[in-house]
From TrEMBL:
Keywords: Hydrolase. It comes from Paenibacillus tianjinensis. Belongs to the 'GDXG' lipolytic enzyme family. This is Alpha/beta hydrolase. One of its GO terms (molecular function) is hydrolase activity. Residues 76-278 form the Alpha/beta hydrolase fold-3 domain.
Amino acid sequence: MPTPSHQLEAIKTFLRQNRSPFGKSAEQIRSEMAEAARQLPRCPDIKAEPVNIGELYGEWVSRDGITEIAAESAFLYFHGGGFIAGTCEMYRDLAARLSAACGIKVLTVEYRLAPEHRYPAANEDCLSAFYWLLGQGFLPENIILGGDSVGATLALMTLISLRDAGNAMPGAAILLSPHSDLIHLDGESYTSRAMTDPTGSLEGNQRIVEEYLGECEGELPALLSPLRLDLHGLPPILIQAGDQEVLLSDAERLAVQVRAAGSEVKLEIWEQMWSVFQFMAGLLVEGEQAIASIGEFVRTVSAAASKTARR
């Protein structure tokens, strides 16, 4: 059973009232996002273990009572928030649900935020977090990389950076409502979904770029437009997006490009949903179902990799 339509409309109305970033400072945006997250229903059995990832704060997140946890694997997850906001605390609920669905612990990371820390600070921190996991003894193929919104973009950019450096790839990647092109912002859905998306807009995403890049002179960093880069040699990727979000075209075009480059990709478009609806899984049946699908994908990819390794 899908979430009742009247409940969906109530949620969307609330989200629309709080979506505009204009006239708000970074601190105000951070405060409002944190407060909104605190109002959502949470898993009652979240287990969060603080950890220092070099100079970054992180958390290992799982759920008490879940016994089927693969100790040799890790899900490295990068939060969204437009490069401006986001904390481990905000993402504990989603991380705990992902951990239970996938059967592995989730590591969330507080990468440096803009405008205090501009490009390439967040990119460097996310790459460092992956290397940190390697230093802890995790094999690349036993690491799942993922994130939502700009966090999904950071995961994708991390994959490209690892490949270009000649490093081994993670076992898979999970991208929730990714920005696949932060330079051109030319997806058709910026127009066709402008009235249906309760959280995102072209103007809001323009601010994301401005905050992260600042007064960037010369050509913009090509890495911020993964859609227009070479995407060969990537691990299996699951992309989830809502059919009402302005980033729909980014997800669809990215899937086409990854597949054309010879990599495995699965694209799921969820009806009546918006950007990173999985974050509201405590309220949305579709959020629970999407997380279950992520778990199925991760378990399938991990089983296939184990079978290959035994040969």
